[in-house]
């Protein structure tokens, strides 16, 4: 009889541990303990902690893309409302965690890019893919005259995601929603102000 594979449970546990403690704070021992897996199982499935972290990051981004789709593909809302909806969905997720965790993409961007070219390249690819649906939604809003067309939609998508990540970092420091609420209020009264 073959031994059970712990690969999926290690990845699931790794995501939870890394969200809580970051890349550096998450030891292989802690990840295996959280997965209920023998320590040797990690090296059976992953060639390094760095390669493991890349898979965890991809898993996290897959979930994020589902949230993007949920918000930005909702045709019952205007494009501007869809942008707001995404920020509200993420705010609710962060509220459920009592403002104790942020975004793994932002956390890894701060923590790993100077140490790992593999993770830096994966993060760069994630940001490029992530901005796509936002740029399309913003372009749609601009085409409908809903928001100003003074700036390129890709640049606005980059601005939105980078600024939102900054607000999430402040939220983690403050352990409350003020930075998120402030960002949403200001961005929708300025950059994404509804055109009359």
Q: What Rg is obtained from the alpha carbons, in whole angstroms?
A: 19 Å
**Number of self-contained structural domains:** 2
CATH class of the largest domain: Mainly Alpha
What structural class do the secondary elements suggest? mainly alpha
> Unreliable segments (pLDDT under 50, ≥5 consecutive)?
none
Please give the number of β-strands: 0
What is the share of helical residues? over 70%
Whole-number average pLDDT? 94
Terminal Cα span: 69 Å
SSE succession? HHHHHHHHH
The fold-level CATH name of the largest domain is Tetracycline Repressor, domain 2
Overall form: elongated
The CATH superfamily label of the largest domain reads: Tetracycline Repressor, domain 2
For the record, the CATH architecture of the largest domain stands as Orthogonal Bundle
- Major β-sheet annotation: none
Q: Estimate the strand proportion.
A: under 5%
Q: How many DSSP H or I helices?
A: 9
